[in-house]
Amino acid sequence: VVSSQSTGSSGINAEYGEEVGDGTTSVIILAGELLKVAEPFLVENMHPTVIIAAYRQALEDAVDMMRNDVAKSVDINNREEMIKIIKSSLGTKFMKGWNDLACGIALDAVKCVNIDDKGGYREIDIKRYAKVEKVPGGSIEMSEILDGVMFNKDVTHTGMKRRIENPRIVMLDCNLEYKKGESQTNMEFMQETDFRKILQLEENYIKEICDDIIALKPDLVLTEKGVSDLAQHFLLKAGISAIRRLRKSDMNRVARAVGGQIVHRPEELKESDVGTECGLFEIKKFGDEYFTFLTKCKNPKACTILLRGASKDVLMEVERNLQDAMNVARNVMLDPFLVPGGGAVEAALAHRLNEKSKAIQGVGQWPYRALAEALKIIPKTLMQNCGVNTIRTMTTLTAKHATSGSTWGVDGETGNIVDMEEFGVWDTL
Fold this sequence. Notes:
Elements: H1 4-19, H2 24-43, H3 48-70, E1 72-73, H4 79-90, H5 99-113, E2 114-116, E3 122-124, H6 126-129, E4 130-136, E5 144-145, E6 149-151, E7 163-165, E8 169-172, H7 192-214, E9 220-223, H8 229-237, E10 241-243, H9 248-258, E11 262-263, E12 280-286, E13 289-295, E14 303-309, H10 312-334, E15 337-340, H11 344-357, H12 365-374, H13 377-386, H14 390-403, E16 408-410, E17 417-419, H15 420-423, E18 426-428
Parallel strand pairs: 4-14, 8-9, 8-11, 9-10
Antiparallel strand pairs: 1-15, 2-3, 5-14, 6-13, 7-12, 12-13, 15-18, 16-17
Helix pairs in contact: 1-2, 2-12, 3-11, 3-12, 4-5, 4-10, 5-10, 7-8, 11-12, 13-14
């Protein structure tokens, strides 16, 4: 990207996508319009700091107006109302045909990873704890949210169990194999028995590690590192299944779903570290790949969304739509207020800021008023996309906001002016 404006715009887009999740197109349109209305003031040699100060003041006033005058509160425990809100974000996207399925999955995923602190702090980390696993094949209707986690791994030995009910799970992030020298290691053997002694030492070390694990009587061992053939032998004899080389992120999700702790050294294992909240461990095969499922968890605080679809391209698009839906659900749960969609909130703010600009003294009132006019670009764009007469429709919308309340917006399909409260299109605050 060559120009500084374009660099700034792409930065805004990425930041907004990270923070809010949905509405990245709108923010680019609005940013471009704000730059456009600022240009005449720069031509007239108005100092940039004066323009920025007016923009900042308008921003603070707009946030206050939205929260106090335009927004309405929402009951986050009302499932029907929450699904209606999430549907607004999917109305123009690929998943529109599977609205109920996508909205249900998004809402359940966000509720699953939601952690309420007694001090009033709420954490909803969908990026780390709501993993989307894409498996080509099948139809989109086969997509589901699991009451647990899954990952693309198989047991290390073919003789190990692939299905266990109510498993006891031990999670490690250390090697179950003999430690190799960090740098070059030299050994001198004077006689034949010395080599056997070294091999015996290695075997004894691995047996000690395995004995520490077997003492807790687990059914499944997960580790982020390797498992040697000898360790597999000892674990198999004890009837324990083992899965190796899990990603750190997958292991953190498993720990949140099944309870227990990730342990760094086998000798430090204790009963409280064992995960006991998983109802079913199962390995399934999709195509040529094996997937491990840890489901029927009692109170999972992490989940996996299993997406099925005809091709990778379809799955990528479904995942993007689902991420938008989850972000909307998260935003509502963190701040349970809604504002009317369809350009209604922008038109309402434009009218209110215009009125307030009359009371501002000095040259700052002109950039302030220009920002109010710039907000109208969102309803104008909706009108242009519908092919209606923009000037006439915008005049009607402005008149409605001056006389009949702040919920009037644009129907994105017909371009008509409608009451968004009746139409049922809402945005998060």
